[in-house]
Amino acid sequence: MRLGLKEACGVIGIHDKDGNVAENIFYGLMALQHRGQESAGIALTTGNGSILLRKNMGLVSEALSLTELSMLKSRFGIGHVRYSTVGSLSLTDAQPFNLDSTALAYNGTIVNYVELKERLRRSGVYFTSTSDAELLLNILLREVREEGDYFDALSELSKYVEGAYSAVCLTGDEKILIFRDPLGFKPLCFGETERSFMGASESVAIDMLGGKLVSDVKPGEAILVSDSGVERKCFAKSKRKSYCMFEFVYFSRPDSIIEGRSVYDVRLKLGMNLAKTYGCGDADVIVPVPDTSRPAAEGMARVTGLPVAEGLIKNRYIYRTFIMPKQNLRENAVKVKLNPLRSVLKDKKIILIDDSIVRGTTIKNIVQMVRRAGAKEVHVRITCPPIVSPCFYGIDIATHGELIASKKSVEEICKSIGADSLGYQTIEKLVDAIGIEKENLCLACLTGEYPTPKAQKLADMMKVKPYHVKGRYVEFCF
Amino acid sequence: MRLGLKEACGVIGIHDKDGNVAENIFYGLMALQHRGQESAGIALTTGNGSILLRKNMGLVSEALSLTELSMLKSRFGIGHVRYSTVGSLSLTDAQPFNLDSTALAYNGTIVNYVELKERLRRSGVYFTSTSDAELLLNILLREVREEGDYFDALSELSKYVEGAYSAVCLTGDEKILIFRDPLGFKPLCFGETERSFMGASESVAIDMLGGKLVSDVKPGEAILVSDSGVERKCFAKSKRKSYCMFEFVYFSRPDSIIEGRSVYDVRLKLGMNLAKTYGCGDADVIVPVPDTSRPAAEGMARVTGLPVAEGLIKNRYIYRTFIMPKQNLRENAVKVKLNPLRSVLKDKKIILIDDSIVRGTTIKNIVQMVRRAGAKEVHVRITCPPIVSPCFYGIDIATHGELIASKKSVEEICKSIGADSLGYQTIEKLVDAIGIEKENLCLACLTGEYPTPKAQKLADMMKVKPYHVKGRYVEFCF
Amino acid sequence: MRLGLKEACGVIGIHDKDGNVAENIFYGLMALQHRGQESAGIALTTGNGSILLRKNMGLVSEALSLTELSMLKSRFGIGHVRYSTVGSLSLTDAQPFNLDSTALAYNGTIVNYVELKERLRRSGVYFTSTSDAELLLNILLREVREEGDYFDALSELSKYVEGAYSAVCLTGDEKILIFRDPLGFKPLCFGETERSFMGASESVAIDMLGGKLVSDVKPGEAILVSDSGVERKCFAKSKRKSYCMFEFVYFSRPDSIIEGRSVYDVRLKLGMNLAKTYGCGDADVIVPVPDTSRPAAEGMARVTGLPVAEGLIKNRYIYRTFIMPKQNLRENAVKVKLNPLRSVLKDKKIILIDDSIVRGTTIKNIVQMVRRAGAKEVHVRITCPPIVSPCFYGIDIATHGELIASKKSVEEICKSIGADSLGYQTIEKLVDAIGIEKENLCLACLTGEYPTPKAQKLADMMKVKPYHVKGRYVEFCF
Amino acid sequence: MRLGLKEACGVIGIHDKDGNVAENIFYGLMALQHRGQESAGIALTTGNGSILLRKNMGLVSEALSLTELSMLKSRFGIGHVRYSTVGSLSLTDAQPFNLDSTALAYNGTIVNYVELKERLRRSGVYFTSTSDAELLLNILLREVREEGDYFDALSELSKYVEGAYSAVCLTGDEKILIFRDPLGFKPLCFGETERSFMGASESVAIDMLGGKLVSDVKPGEAILVSDSGVERKCFAKSKRKSYCMFEFVYFSRPDSIIEGRSVYDVRLKLGMNLAKTYGCGDADVIVPVPDTSRPAAEGMARVTGLPVAEGLIKNRYIYRTFIMPKQNLRENAVKVKLNPLRSVLKDKKIILIDDSIVRGTTIKNIVQMVRRAGAKEVHVRITCPPIVSPCFYGIDIATHGELIASKKSVEEICKSIGADSLGYQTIEKLVDAIGIEKENLCLACLTGEYPTPKAQKLADMMKVKPYHVKGRYVEFCF
Is the same domain home to A268 and A223? Predict the structure, then answer.
């Protein structure tokens, strides 16, 4: 369970011959809601060259009016859900971002954001936000003008924009461009129904709309959808891929299919592999921290034969980072979200399974909660290996100093969180569970080895001089 | 999983010596949110004899302002969450209801509502709503005036008010009266912290506030909390109890303790008992319909050794009866709420476990969904025995005609929902799992035998002449 | 200009054969908006015996959704706008009030409210609000049940309900009852279009709907409108009338016709009469305090030949008692609402004309403002005679002690507000301007002589022992 | 009276040493609310180099939270109110506009907007809106970078940006730049209190804040306010000025002082001059169309000795272009806003005085309304001369073809609007009333002679080929 972790965004783009794009994007975004609860937005073509834009703070059902959308007829549109930042009430960074009758919705992070922004600034292009989407859209428009073609533009752009970008772009003249960076960090897939085509962050959005998953959008691939049909092209080649392992471990919905793998199956196997690594000693019961770790608990049960029990109950109605006005309560966010089930925990030796440890505070509170409910022993198992390095590709895992695993040994962490034992997944077993060759995964946050050069340089510098300036960790460098 | 079932309400009443009642009620209601998502309300003493009332449509976090509440100092207060009715946008029936500087929040149903209301009407008392709370509060005030004492008033009242009432009552002169009908249909418990006392529908609200569960409020018991202390008295005796079995099966949160039983443990045992009754044949996997049936699936796994898998993923962000403007989509509410996990279901023989069947439509859609995802066989197991009779004590299970089990045999139902086999819990195994003697449970909806005479008469009449007038099934009788 | 004076309410009731009642009530309420800006409400028949109710805080355009209303088809309905109370955010007292499939919207005050309420309370009728409407509706329903006929019921009711009541009542079985107390304190008129009938507080609502003013509802008259037609009857006779003089002076819109008199013409004549009484000395210019006093300024100009100038400009966008969070600004409400026009006021001898003085604070601030803008002399003229006694018929003019004219002579008031001279209207000239015989006007607040016995008794008691308890000045007596 | 005319915007910028900028901007915007009711916005320095932005649809009191603002401490800030466009619900064009930690609020129009935008576009600068503010801010930032100094930057900018711009600009490093184009089309003034400096569209905002009007910002002048003090410089010289005459006639509040003239006095004189030109024949009464024409009616009365009467009453509560869902009512917006006072109009010969005629529809409806109320004769007098040419400097007076006076003679217009006589102000008498030499006023909409070359060219082209593309009339040219 993550409290306050900034999650990935979710994007969707649809061309529907029958004009029901607005409503379908609404439903598609509801399927992607887990990827971002801060704001939601939609951009639609109007048929006369311009674009209608709606974006607002809140969940999809709060930010957008389904009643309004269901009355709009549009054949091309894109949508976006954005991750949650405590206390931010600003719309400035909400997406889709629009410029020049073009709108962009985007998931990822541009590593050399500051450098590229400064370069544009020097040429007289100024920015209204700190959003990567604004920068990427500026660059894209610039390249399209120079190259005269979307694929060539992306090809050019990919030469100097380093980072993760899984994006959908809508043009006023009724085209949708779906594209993914050459290393393919963040997921993006392509689907269809009889009368429509769609790109989306995860296949669950396609499921929701009754569509069929055609394929992932390949790393370095772009898909142009218009009335003339669907054009797919590779705009950039790369020897390796860098699929974000954390999408399998934590971000994506278990019912999504990413790179041909069922996320559920991966998580099941993560649990099985943990069991194979550590056994189960004389534990009585496996308790998952809901909701992400439930499949892993199942997997562990299959190997060990131990029962699974819902020893921690999650309040279904506190989904966003619920803002509590008084400090004493804010510190107790874990208590508000989780309730221990005494009858399950009391006098038991517990294997507590969670997806990851970042700072160590949340798991510490949970272990405490489980103990107070009477558990005799608490053995923590983490489906993800230790996180030791920051992420520059779309997950807000900040500086080395804040990552408990970059400073402490497993034994020290175990002690600090108050567990009886602590077992992390090994990198090998993680790779095995995902089922993709190691060299095609991004494991930078686990290994400190980054798949792109500027990120590596950045990480190396941060190790020496840890900075985190104005929300952009990269602000100080280049 | 229930779609559109009208659930029970949730109530809470708090006396806090430090004046933090408003904020605590807010958090307590969040813990009870699963009992009602239509409206939320709060009533507080102001210290000068009057009562401050706030109630609004929506979830607790939408209907009440935590910012406002955290600024209010009050030492006595009550709160209420109300169940969901599609399309109703009316505040008229929202609770707490107030009359004469007294406020009432209430869970249950008065069986002889129409009769009692008409009797009062004839004496010149008119009603602004169709809420049982308004009627009950009127009667209570009347008896208090006559008897001069809360306990005597309740004793008198209990002689002619038939039905379920688990209630908290707040008076302008700073008292809280917590009381429960003599048969104790709906749950109500009493807890404390160092500086406060509280009554609540379920113990999870006490957990949320860091309190200790002292005991259930006993059937026929009232607790008067004031600055003079806590006074507990039995106002009415009854040979038997009638604890609603559906609270264990479906309504309550799994982490609640009701009548000393862990709801989670009951559900675990429900699953174990189903396994004992039906075995598991050559099934491959157990799939619960989330979230209620998960513990039962665990229980079944413990007996059969079969693996559990999350073959149906619930969209966490559609919690209320989400209103969809277009009919074609409204029919597909199941599709919006659940997504099948193909990798789990494909080519498998599934044991699908759900909590209950009312009309049979929802389970039919789910079976279909599971089949389309590739399941080879679908064996449905229901933790609750067949529901054959309406409920007059707080659950909107309408007329006999609408209850599929009152018209069809198990074989016919199995065929009609498209399952390969269908196994209901037996009443004996249900009773065994709950662990309370059969005669102290209300099993009326399973047996057609009602613990109170007017309800029995009503049910018998409805069998002959099924009516459902203006939202009050009892309107036509007496 | 009044700051924070609680104004009268506005009511409307419509029967429209074409079913456009909801929308028409919305527009009618907009025409009556000046009579109340705190809350607005509407009640409509549904055609099946029940009543649909909507009420909310705010202006008509904020509290009610015209979009929703314009989609509702209803043939009978009533509406209400309620006056403004600073800081009150409660819906409890909003109207229409409903009981027993009947709804009431009401303007006025019941003098013996506490006595009647207590009498009902003793018989077991409890109240959810402190609204006169709830009491009146209870009494009306009770009498209708006893008498079996609306007119007889009102006849009976009028024998013991003392006070002002201009009301519209809607029944679920599709009738509208429009009635006015025997002395006719507050205005109420009756109009029609080709396909509809309507009762309303002021004729401007009838104008807005393109209707024709048929007549005032006579004091003691009731009009029953149903599909069978229009039935008008006198339910109570009275030797005298008691038309509220303040409706002519301040409350009503200038374009309304009340008791056959144009309110504008009355105000014009009020100004003319002031000029006749006091002349204009060597003043340079007449400056009205906007908006009410503008016609009086015109009238004064016609007699004296002096020019009128808009020396005080009102901010059109601060119409409600705008809530200012910081105290220093709250005290300056006059400054936020009015801006002096230096070029008009500088070095001039000003006749400043306003409608009335209650506590004397507002006019004092205005005089100061005018002086600071450079006026050489400020001669205040008030179109209403000195207010020396409280009102018990619908205007919140509180205790004697708060009324500056009950404690001080005109000379003392003049000094206290900082004016060079002060001239009040005489009672004779007021009566002359209104054009109704003195004995048919309620002048109680000017003379201390009340047209009803309990009000007289109450005023006499308050003189000795001024009380103002819990918002009901009458709470302590009887 | 104008229905649906797009009015000018209002701006304000404040430096307050005590940090109360946010609250003061709120109050200042309330004083400027008449200049724009569509949206309101505010930008504040945070003290750490960045800017906090809030903007929303609606009136100031709806769009901004005074509660929130009064808790924010900031020493530099700017605010904006934007004019009303029916049906537009888009925030895209709301101001302040921000780029690169700089925010701009702006009143005016850039004549060569399309040309300049296209030029920037060609250099890779793309736009998110069609707002002149975005273009102007881009150009300003570009020039500041090149010139290194605000005054030089404005000097450069003024050489090629043609049009009206009265603006306030806020920088993250705590400066406010207040500037006005060299011809000074739209008003802008500068004021101070003991602890603060402020620039605002009209002096009433300074009045509201208890400040002193120091002077107008001169055409071609810029004022830089920072902690170092106030620096005033002329950045561009011009032989003539072009003060918009319509600010005096219609836009500004009567209590504003513009270029040293009281707007009220100008309007008074406009009425006097009309009276001198046309006399009053045997008319009985002067009736102003509220609210703008009231001072002119006063002026006319002073000359003719005729009485003024409020023959048309304006509904104070319909201030925005109130959106009516049904067409038949929308056509009747005049009826909803105005009510004729029969007792004033009946059997009278009326001089009806209004500020201007654009398309002729509104005045036609008013004349009709006055006649139906019984007027014997209706003589229309217009304080503004005939409008024959479009405005390219900030008022949405569209194409020649839509201007009734560009197509018809006064006699024809008189007939078309149904008046008995029609008298426009002459240009000479308008100039005389304003009291500024003709060559320093912008009279382009009256004469067709534009003070800037591109506007002249544009007007000449539009005469031949009237276009109005996508909301920017200038889109087709250059």
Answer: no
Which residue out of D71, D303, D343, D365 would a mutagenesis test of the C interface target, given it has the greatest number of C Cβ atoms within 10 Å?
Answer: D343
- Among chain D residues, the shortest Cα distance to A129 is held by D99
Residue at C36 is within a domain: yes
**Distinct helix (H) and strand (E) counts, chain B:** 19, 23
Give residue A46's Cα distance to chain centre.
30
D475 located within any domain: no
| Closest chain C C-alpha to D91 CA, distance in angstroms | 21
Q: Which residue in B50, B127, B142 is closest to C124 by CB distance?
A: B142
**CATH code of the domain covering residue D186:** 3.60.20.10
| Residue C239 half-sphere exposure toward CB, CA atoms < 13 A | 3
Q: Is A146 on the interface with D (CB under 8 A)?
A: no
Contact D344 C291 (CB under 8 A): no
Distance between CA atoms of residues B120 and B236, nearest Å: 23
Predicted local confidence at residue C394, as pLDDT: 76
What integer pLDDT is reported at residue A397 of this predicted model?
58
Question: Quick check: C341 contacting D, CB < 8 Å?
Answer: yes
Neighbours of D387 (CB within 10 A): 22
The pair of three-digit structure tokens given for residue D323, joined into one six-digit string: 């959106």
pLDDT tens digits along A289-336: 998 999 999 999 999 999 999 999 998 887 554 555 554 554 567 778
B224 shares a domain with B125: yes
pLDDT > 70 in chain D, percent: 90
Average pLDDT rounded to a whole number, residues C399-408: 86
* pLDDT tens digit sequence for B140-189: 999 999 999 999 999 999 999 999 999 999 999 999 999 999 999 999 99
Q: Which domain holds residue D128?
A: 10-238
| Confidence check: pLDDT of D477 > 50 | no
The pLDDT of residue C228 is above 70: yes
Do A203 and A273 reside in the same domain of the chain?
no
Structure tokens at D183: 């011809």
Q: How many domains does chain D have?
A: 2
CATH number for A350: 3.40.50.2020
| Domain closes at, from A239, A274, A301 | A239
pLDDT of residue A71: 84
Residues D320 and D418 in one domain: yes
CB of A65 within 8 Å of a chain D CB? The answer is no
pLDDT beyond 80 at C296: yes
Q: How far apart are CA C8 and CA C108, in angstroms?
A: 7
> How far from chain centre, in Å, is Cα A404?
21
- Same structural domain for residues A359 and A400? yes
Q: Does C42 share its domain with C99?
A: yes
Residues of B in contact with C138 (CB under 8 A): 124, 126
- Cα–Cα distance for residue pair B234/B223, rounded to 1 Å: 9
Residue B455 placed within a domain = no
Kindly state whether residues C199 and C343 are assigned to the same domain. Answer: no
Is A422 among the domain residues? Answer: yes
Active site residue D414: no
Residue whose structure tokens are 């510490």? A364
Q: Which of B100, B121, B142 sits opposite C100 (nearest CB)?
A: B121
